[in-house]
Amino acid sequence: MRKMNVLGIMCWTLFFASSVLAQTAPGVNSTALKGDYAFSFNGMTTGDGVSSTPFAAVGRFTADGAGNLTNGELDANGFGTMEKAVAQPFTGTYSVGADNRGVMNLNIPGGGTLAFAMMANGNAKFVEIDASGGHGTVGSGTMEKVDTTAYSTAKITGDYAFGVAGFDQSNNRTAMAGRFTANGTGTFTSGAADLNLSGTFSTLSVVAGSYAVTDRTTGRGVLNMPPAVGGTPINLDFVFYVVNAGKVFAMEMDVLSPATPLLTGVVLQQQTPPIMGFTSTSLDGGMVMYGSGTGAGEAGLLTADGIGMLTLDFDGACFGEGGGSGTYTVASNGRTTIRIGPAYAAAYLVSSNEAFFIVPDSCVSFGFGEPQAPGTTSTNSAIVGNYAGSTAIPTNVKDVIFSGEFNADGASPTGNISGTEDIGAPSGPSLAVPANYTYSISSPNVPPYISWWYVNGNRAGIVYVISPSKFVVVLWDPSSYNSLLIFER
Question: Which residues have a Cβ under 8 Å from the Cβ of 451 and sit 6 or more positions away?
Fold first, then answer.
């Protein structure tokens, strides 16, 4: 998705795209991708395969179910001038094979070739695969079907929680989580947020802000957030694309600087309980937390009792490594404090057992929590069937960045997952790579739903099952950084 004014690269991209299509299954299943979509992409641009600067894009398109993209539009931001785009129109083509893996080519300056994996609901996970020789952009993203009737400022109304994270031009990490109330006419109030700016943590008072759906044909909008930090306003300007009235993809569009890093994320409508708002009972049961810190994926299982006590089993580089017992408090607006010994985290509830979380640590740990399905078993049958998998937001150019389609057999005592991966890397893509994993969820020595994951004999990780339809993996790889992987039906 990198915007580059280099004719040689454009010609190479067209040649490479035709080669990719020749290596994948023909578009026998292109009807799987049909309708209006919004997308969000996070990645890195590199010139040597080692160092990198952040790059991101958000946008929308229409897929006709026959391999053609129309009505495309994207906004992009990065360190280089050629990496910036504002409401850039595009068309494109795509092909989906019998195994629900696909390739997409965007007709934009510099080209954009994507490999994607379809899910049963018509959404898809994707990675960029047009880097080569240590040059180009690598990263991952998601495409989601949209509700075009929500392309209106008036439809963005009520209470919302949000979470965004990213890097500045020097790869210093920043994250922010918070909430606000939108009035449906372009103003939001009652805002609150927590910000970790390269390891410096602040609780913000967002006194007011503005937003608008500026294009009712594409769902594109803008949001201005002027939080006050120590009395000094720091304006953050976001562009967003509507998924539906309860969800938008957002990206910071200011010029990159230490005060305005390239943040991307999502805004979700809060399911605020009437009359009293959120209370301690809004955390009651299991919540799988997953996200990342600097250079590392993280995940854990938080179990709350509904009256202020919790336990946490956590695997990651920083926050509460290993977990433990602790306490929590919930404000009526959904802001939640979590304490486990000396460790501390803030969270903003979207609904019961669902929240954005942020940690005041040097790793700038940040992520999302989802309720663990009641009755999820602690046997291998918790993971069975077909899944689309991908690397979540990468935090380093050395991450293993892939998407693919997989099948889990649920066998006991050792389960097997087989599938096909498409990998994007600075050195060049690896397409249609066979993948064979083994897994074991049953273990008396660890909490339920947590297991070791053995990959091809040289990588291992921890699995956290959210439901039979979704699980996440914190993957350790001695040849790269720890990665967070997400698998969904």
Answer: 439, 440, 441, 442, 443, 462, 463
